[in-house]
Design goal:
The chain is an all-alpha fold and 99 residues long. Helix content is 35%, strand content 0%. It is flat.
């Protein structure tokens, strides 16, 4: 006995292709407003490896650096922040890993 593809799927093979699967159908469209970089504003603190309080704001509870999409920091400031965090870790001002 030879079965066709529709028989193996319980008759659903051809029925699904007739449905309209549009990219936005059934999904909410969400536009996130871009935030300004908190370290680029006027009067913002300068990124420095000795400023442990500032660096601690951009480190998670586990000791990892937080990503740009969460902190809304510009790419230039994120690179400077990463370098400052790494320097502070090497000088034992910040922990590499927190328990």
């Amino acid at each position: 006995m030879a079965f066709s593809r529709e028989d193996n799927r319980g008759g659903q093979g051809q029925g699904q292709s007739s449905q309209n699967f549009d990219n936005n159908q059934g999904k909410k469209v969400f536009f996130r407003q871009s935030k300004a970089c908190p370290l680029s504003e006027k009067g913002a603190p300068k990124v420095d490896y000795k400023d442990v309080k500032l660096l601690a704001k951009f480190i998670s509870e586990r000791g990892k650096m937080m990503p740009r999409r969460i902190t809304s920091i510009s790419a230039k400031k994120q690179r400077a922040l990463a370098k400052a965090i790494k320097r502070a870790r090497n000088l034992a001002l910040l922990p590499f890993v927190s328990k």
